[in-house]
Amino acid sequence: MKEKILTCFGCMIALLNAIDSTNEVEREHILSCLKDVKEDKDVDDWISILREDKRKVVPDCFVCTHPCGRVDEIRLNKASQKRAIQLLDTMDSMNSEEILFTLGGLPYEIGS
């Protein structure tokens, strides 16, 4: 996978970790981002948008003196990279909750 797409997946997962089911705008951003990533368009823009969404949703986390990792950048391991590709290939047959559940279930490592 291209490095930018992996970074974008990391941003989507990090934002998903920071929100709950009431954050509809951010959830829609994640779903729209996945569609654009599948078509390999606007990836750089989405990385910026997702990072800004995360800052809006949990601004105090960015100045916390005891960080818990909630807003850390995410790295996908090799197995997760394959599963991310599978998600892009199968997401058209899934509803939004299934897509977000699958995305949130990808194993990852903390760190940029």
Report on this model:
By secondary structure, the chain is mainly alpha-helical. The chain has one domain. Helix content is about 60%, strand content about 5%. It contains 5 helices and 2 strands; from the N terminus they run H-H-H-E-H-H-E. The protein has a two-stranded antiparallel ribbon. The radius of gyration is 13 Å and the shape is globular. The two termini are about 15 Å apart. About 25% of the residues are buried.
Question: Could you list some keywords that capture this structure?
Answer:
two-stranded antiparallel sheet; 5 helices; 5% strand; mainly alpha; 112 residues; single chain
Report the sheet-strand fraction.
5-15%
Spatially, the strands of the biggest sheet line up as 1-2
Rounded to the nearest angstrom, the radius of gyration is 13 Å
User: Strand count, sense and closure of the main sheet?
Assistant: 2 strands, antiparallel
Cα separation of the termini: 16 Å
Instruction: State the shape.
Output: globular
How many beta-strand runs?
2
Secondary-structure-based class equals: mainly alpha
Task: Give a brief rundown of this model.
By secondary structure, the protein is mainly alpha-helical. It contains 5 helices and 2 strands; from the N terminus they run αααβααβ.
Question: What is the secondary structure topology, with strand pairs?
Answer:
Layout: H1 3-18, H2 24-38, H3 43-57, E1 74-76, H4 78-90, H5 96-104, E2 108-110
Antiparallel strand pairs: 1-2
Helix pairs in contact: 1-2, 1-3, 2-3
